[in-house]
Amino acid sequence: MDTIFYTYQEFYTHTKAIAYLLMVAALIGIACFWKFLSGKDDADQDRTL
Amino acid sequence: MSISRRKFLGWVGAAGVGTVVARSAHASGNKHFEGYPGSFGVLHDMTRCVGCRSCEAACNHVNSLPAPEQPFTDLSVLMQERRTTEKSFTVVNKYSVASRQTPLFRKIQCNHCLEPACASACFVKAFQKTSTGAVIYDPSVCVGCRYCMIACPFEIPAYEYNEALSPRVMKCTLCYPRISQGQLPGCVEACPMEALTFGKREDLIETARERIRQFPGRYVDHIYGETEMGGTSWLYLSGVPFSQVGMREDLGVTPAPELTFGALSVVPIVAGLWPVLLTGIYAISKRKEIIFQQELEAVKKAAQSRSKEEI
Amino acid sequence: MSATTSRGSQTWFTPFNVITSAIIIVGLVITFLRFTKGLGAVTHLSHDNPWGLWISFDLLVGVALAAGGYVTSAAVYLFGLRKYHSAVRPAVLTGFLGYALVVFALHYDVGRPWRLPYPFIMQQGTTSLLFEVAACVALYLTVLFLEFVPAALEWLGLKRVRDLITRLTLALTILGVVLSTLHQSSLGALFLIAPSKLHPLWYSPYLPVYFFVSSIIAGLSMVIFESTLSHHYFADKMDQTHLDEKEGVTLGFGKAASLVLAGYFFIKLMGVAGGDNWRLLGTSYGLWFLVEMIGFIALPAFLYAVGVRNKDLPLIKWTALWTIIGIVLNRLTVGLIAFNWQLPPSRRYFPHWMEIAISIFIVTVGIVVFKFIVTRMPIFYEHPEYKDAH
């Protein structure tokens, strides 16, 4: 965070790089969270069906 | 309560540090950027240019470019409007303007934007705005997609289309190797008319303003490059409206990175929200299906029990 | 041409084989020229026109027309429209082949194709829309491969791997839609950096939205169009389910395409309003814009609607073809016709015949590979061992 930016170009290169890493995290994270969220439902379903 | 009091004081202290950090971060300017302080540029005063092509010759020599078909002393090439190519990083064009008795000459080369469109467009960061002001290109990573050429509003980058295996994008470097060693750019050094002035960009803007102030009849009251596309390191003074010497006046003042900022900002939001939305739609349609199955079974059971009763 | 669909015993010298071989030989010769003499020898690209037919047709059109994969799999697996299930495999296959060919074509266009992975492994130009396109296309090609591969594995009899991959169907479908949304729109956003070069009637801050919405239209229309062609040439490969569902697919997708076209018409109009470009409609470019708006957006929206209301299958099929032509024209307009519109005619671009030949060559390679796959793998029918397994 100590980097001093002199141009929009540099600043955006920096922020967009972090955004891309967060996007990967979001895609994996949401998939895992959905598994956790509906984990018990699926188990119930397996029992009933 | 004493613990919470200590905690509270701790928070206050942390908050104080936080504001100090925040202030220094703000001082480094995370909202507004004005380019590298003290970076160099060149002022091209078209009213002084005589179209001798000395700058073209010097550029060719300094950059070790191939010899041209016609020698640089041959001024007949000025009859045609030319653009930069992979073999000439700068060209001078002649413009005969009705309002003047003598023609005007304009030198074209990379304008070294403060916020270069080529750098914004490049997907391997082959272009870089350096602290000297020069926008330089690194052929060792270039893939050759030529998106920089699409992006450049001044139509400067050229491509080695006839290289089979190692084509490069070619453009003026503001003589980056020379100015890094304290030398003048080749073209500026060669100019016999002092039509080109090298210096710190902010000083050049002052110089240009001063000239307009002193000779209001000689110049149009505009420094081309001061604000165009967010500003360029090359600046121009002209005696006639810039559109009459082939320069576009409709480029606007928006720096290139801002043009794509909106579209790029949507990307992470789509990546974050689309999976939520789509999973939701999936869950709804799946649930409908399950309910349908359950109802179907209930109906079947009811039908079965009814038929049993009847028997 | 029907002779080409029957197997074995027949002579190799069918019209299909002769024509495709000729195209492929010409293509290989030009390929040799391209990589020995450079782009200058086989294209009319210039410093003013760095992107030509290979970007506008092979990339922009190619990606738009390959949208059937994500549209169909989203309809079936996410929106629960199970009755279109038999359309998934052909759509995913054409999507996969489409993207593979786009990447193949890019090897001709970029200066140093062996460096195509550089944006990922060397330096990341994160401010570039092209970086986003490259990342999404690379990932989506992988997703489409994984969506397609169960068919190949069924053909090869590798049951365990196949079952493992089919368990990923939901995740792959969602990822596919996310990636498609992003790169379909970003192909339009590529031009946002050049407001001074693209004609104001096509340049709009909504350009990415237009590209995304029109890709849905292209995807739906391509599924209808392909199913018509496939039914003509590969009917013997289709099982009863596929044949039974075909009519439903055409009607359902036609209805969807009609609705999306209507929406597309209005958002295009809002773009004109946003830029206050009404007066430009009276110019020659304006006329071309109106041809697109009325002839290739409003008209097919109406024709699809009439076709769906009257259950007129031939009308829907012809409208699908018309719509596809409209999308092709739109991409060529943004990439070539309306781009650099301010340059004098002498500095404008028209493709070299060898550029056209390479584009034809690449499409031909796609058709040959498609034919190879559908005559061998379970695309138009369900593999007997995997009935109802998906």
Structure description:
The complex is a heterotrimer of chains A (49), B (311) and C (390). Chain A has 49 residues and is mainly alpha-helical. Chain A has two helices and no strands. Chain A has helices at 8-37, 39-48. The model of chain A has no long low-confidence stretch (mean pLDDT 82). Chain B is an alpha+beta fold and 311 residues long. Chain B has helices at 2-27, 54-62, 117-121, 147-151, 176-180, 186-190, 201-214, 256-310, and strands at residues 40-45, 91-95, 104-108, 127-129, 135-137, 158-159, 169-170, 196-200, 234-237. In chain B, strand 2 (91-95) and strand 3 form a beta hairpin. Mean pLDDT of chain B is 88; it is low at 1-29. Chain C contains 14 helices and no strands. In chain C, 69% of the residues lie in helices and 0% in strands. Chain C has a single domain, classed as Formate dehydrogenase/DMSO reductase domain (Formate dehydrogenase/DMSO reductase fold). By secondary structure, chain C is mainly α. Chains in contact: A-B, A-C, B-C. The interface between B and C is large, with 62 and 60 residues.
Compact overview of the structure:
The complex is a heterotrimer of chains A (about 50), B (about 300) and C (about 400). Chain B is built from eight helices and nine strands. Chain B has about 300 residues and is of the alpha+beta class.
